[in-house]
Design brief:
Three copies of one chain form a homotrimer. The mean pLDDT of chain A is 96. Chain A has a single domain, classed as UDP-N-acetylmuramoyl-L-alanine:D-glutamate ligase (3-Layer(aba) Sandwich), CATH 3.40.1190.20. In chain A, helix 1 runs antiparallel to helix 11 and helix 9 crosses helix 10. Chain A has eleven helices and nine strands. Chain A is α/β, with parallel strands linked by helices. Chains A, B, C: GO terms for molecular function: ATP binding; hydroxyethylthiazole kinase activity; magnesium ion binding. Chains A, B, C: It comes from Suipraeoptans intestinalis.
Chain lengths: 273, 273, 273
Amino acid sequence: MFQECLEEVRKKKPLVHNITNYVTVNDCANILLACKASPIMADDVEEVEEITAICSGLNLNIGTLNQRTIQAMKLAGKKAGQLGHPILLDPVGAGASALRTRTARELLEDLKISAVRGNSSEIKTLALGTGATRGVDADISDRITEDSLEKAAAFAKAFSKKTGAVIAITGAIDIVADEEKAFCIFNGHPMMSSITGTGCQLSAMMTAYICANPDRRTEAAAAAVAAMGVCGEKAYESLTVQDGNTAYRSRIIDQVFHLTGEELEKRAKYKLL
Amino acid sequence: MFQECLEEVRKKKPLVHNITNYVTVNDCANILLACKASPIMADDVEEVEEITAICSGLNLNIGTLNQRTIQAMKLAGKKAGQLGHPILLDPVGAGASALRTRTARELLEDLKISAVRGNSSEIKTLALGTGATRGVDADISDRITEDSLEKAAAFAKAFSKKTGAVIAITGAIDIVADEEKAFCIFNGHPMMSSITGTGCQLSAMMTAYICANPDRRTEAAAAAVAAMGVCGEKAYESLTVQDGNTAYRSRIIDQVFHLTGEELEKRAKYKLL
Amino acid sequence: MFQECLEEVRKKKPLVHNITNYVTVNDCANILLACKASPIMADDVEEVEEITAICSGLNLNIGTLNQRTIQAMKLAGKKAGQLGHPILLDPVGAGASALRTRTARELLEDLKISAVRGNSSEIKTLALGTGATRGVDADISDRITEDSLEKAAAFAKAFSKKTGAVIAITGAIDIVADEEKAFCIFNGHPMMSSITGTGCQLSAMMTAYICANPDRRTEAAAAAVAAMGVCGEKAYESLTVQDGNTAYRSRIIDQVFHLTGEELEKRAKYKLL
């Protein structure tokens, strides 16, 4: 099923509207192109409604939010909701400042959010107001391990039930849940945390996957998470001794460029809870 | 003649002022350095006139325009015009929103634009108000093919006559025209469309070529287009099986770094119409 | 001693708040991760005080300053000063516009700046108001050579005495001075000037080094400069004939990722004046 999700992206080539941070925006554009989707970035309040209307979905990322772009996110999100476009929220750094926490919550409450993707601290902050966000990284106390997996899956399902959104919590182990089921995904490599923006990139790609698979958005989100993890593994295997985190960054996107549905299906490691 | 155009850039090392989008800005800076020009990015209204005054030319790119940067573009453009500096306009996404279409037209009408570079949909939108822009990519109905080449060249010449600017329409086949002649350039590789910002990069590089060759700006613009295409070909030839779109992105800029005037002259494929 | 400075960064993994330009911001984030620090970028006035409070230090870079981010720099800087966090100022392009010169001076005067890193023209502008800044590059007349080294070191020491900040002037030869001593560092490679943002990257990394070594900030700043230079040398040695400035950019950060304290100590070339 992950195979079909990936193949639909390649077939439909969805155009994704991104209002995202200026740190990792280039990587987000290139990973969308790598999976055969198309990116457009636009954040002026005068145009965001029009831009989002010509797209298939909207990726909202608060990584370097400001008063101007928060307004743009709200306007674009309202329009995308009216048009029935999927909207993904990446609450970067929720918990690190009141502005981030409040903005992430307002976007989640006021818009028809289809999916939320964040690390465990960000998602806990959104759900409970108590994540221990360390800047834009998850605090170690929030991390999901084999031992806490069942509890984390139940938490994600409950948060999905409450919000109506697919909840993707990514880290060493990833959880993608709707109210009935949770994919626990074991792909990926620890070195992915040494690159800025793998989370942002995944959010952009996940938006494309959901756009192309409107009738199975949980599976599509899980497929995107597995695809990122598989590409992280394959890219790691391709590193030479001199390669460091920037080579790794490029290699991951390059693996996304080449990844086939068949390989994704074969290498994806997950269980349902 | 393309050879001389390239060599003048290496000799004069023009300083180019860029007011451009935050998606591809790093690549624009690096490609300017690769061709031995120097970049400066500055977009605050309080400083853009001063900054543009110490530069040789101005590259205006509306890829992530906003109210603040539109003002900066107008101020910088007015100053650059007074000083006789070449100004290039890259109307990214013209046709995708009213703001983009209107801004691109205002810049073209109000400033002394030396060159416009865009895809076929963007240029059609500017000239006729009727391009079928799909986000920031050209719509397939607008694409230039061997069959539509003569018509497209005539259109570009007419638009150049009307505006006084060199018109560069880039795609599978590129056209660079002034009112009397059109270079039809056949270099490049389809994979270039799988990278974000090859167009933006070309606009930055074209500005440098025009700065360094003030007495033959059409030839200089054509030389920049051919250089980008040749580097796209050479970079493609250098790819390994694992390389994808991000490796390709870096390889193209690296080829620009090494490209000699002699090799450009030898590999450029074009005809005049 | 450089060895210990590097190792402290790897051990303490300082979280660095960056208010920096949108041209090189991704490279700044990745080089911080490469040296095992963590980056956070945040520039909205409503959150910068809170964000800086959870960090260990603050990196202020005026590369694409605007009215909004200048305010954010001032607020964040005031808060960081109250908390005793080190603040680094990178006065990109000081001398190229009145706004840059004035802003850099105001930040230096109003905040408790721990270190300033710039090229010779930028630092001269800050100290004397007379640098010959060519855009964001040092003017050749300002460059430090073997002949002018003693004079430059004395100038840096005097400026450090006046400001209380460590003064880092980087170029072909680098000087890192406090009021009593100046490290003159001879590492690096000329090709580093063909990449955008090696200076910005160094400023980000230097902030992390100072955060992790609060009791020897001059040595820490010098260690960061030497580390960047050594990585520039090692990356150059690793280049293939097809590699250009973008490959070189990635290779330098990858070398930072792998650099050990032992190797830094062994390869660092400097003398004290």
